[in-house]
Write a structure and sequence with these properties.
The structure is a single chain. The chain has helices spanning 3-31, 34-68, 74-103, 113-139, 164-197, 202-209, 224-244, 248-263, 268-277, 280-293, 298-336, 342-368, 380-388. Helix 6 crosses helix 12. By secondary structure, the chain is mainly alpha-helical. It starts with a helix and ends with a helix. The radius of gyration is 22 Å and the shape is globular.
Length: 389
Amino acid sequence: MNEYWKTTVELMESSKRVISAVDRVQTALTEGNPGDVELASDVLARAASDYAGYTGSYERFSFSEMVTIPKGMMPQQQLTSNLLVNILLDLQVANILMMVSQATGETIGPATVDDLETAAYWLETLVDQVALPLIWTADAPTTPVHFAFVEIPVAPPVHPATDLAVAKANFQKQVDEMLAILVAQTKDILQAGWEVVKELDQAQIIAAIGQIDQGAPDVPRQSKLLQQSLNLATQALQKLNRLLGPQCTELLQEEARQLSTQLMDKTTLLDEFLIHTYRVAETKSYIVNLLNQTKTDLIHLNKGSEQLVELHNRFAEQMIILSRIITALNTSKRLAGFVLPKVTTMALFGAFYLGVMDYAILAGMDFADSAILFNFVPGVISISEATLI
């Protein structure tokens, strides 16, 4: 068993200990014994500290694995999805810590015992959905897997064609559907993020983006769980920015300046922006020419169509994870708003929303093969050229 596998197992086990500790806090609050509540909160703080250590180690091992794998290989596709899930897990743990700090009276806020029960249920559900895929791929990183998210819109399988003309038509259909999915699902993420970002002060967000690596905002010393929560949320943001790459700060600041123009019109202008960014028309034309000139056989055409279906499913999965991250951020921002200055809340979470939106655009470009900033997956053009040339 390698160290990456061991760290992944420890990360999952530590998240379960957080859930168990939250259950203990719920029981103490329900029974109403202040001493038990304080003891249960201390147990949770220790569990959260363990989790923070393991999630940091998981990040280090994941990026170390990515460095050793050639760009565009299947393990990189899996590792990027795994890191997005890790970010989501960090945020849900951070949110439950913030809820406990409010429910126990450590800080002000509306969280109740019922809120803790609901949050613990969703955290446990997430762990159940991601634990086996994360552990499996840490042990056998060349094997692609998907997470057990029921809301992922899985593309229907392509039945192998027995006629060359039908095989070409199937391939063209998969290309067209993949490009349409890239635009539609990226648009959903951008609009969901924009619903929050449009209410924030853009100048403050731009300034905050340049300070992302400076750590979490400090809170009063007695607010231990709140500080742990903010540390985890900041750590998750830093992971996302590291995944975006060294160009992250400049990209986010430029997007903060320009994205409002693209999102003012929620239909035509945004569609046109994404169609242009993903070079949809040029890609379709290029692949039609390849199909007209290709000498490839049925086996390669059928295999290429299957690869496009898997590409579709991989992208849909990443967009579902990003959608869940935005939902978690909505909760984080709401809870933090009761205890942090507005400017601090806007700076931390505004930068996070923009990071998610930026990742969605860059991931779409990667899957479309319309840019080289990202190169984690063999995209539409790469698969087409490998199949048809």
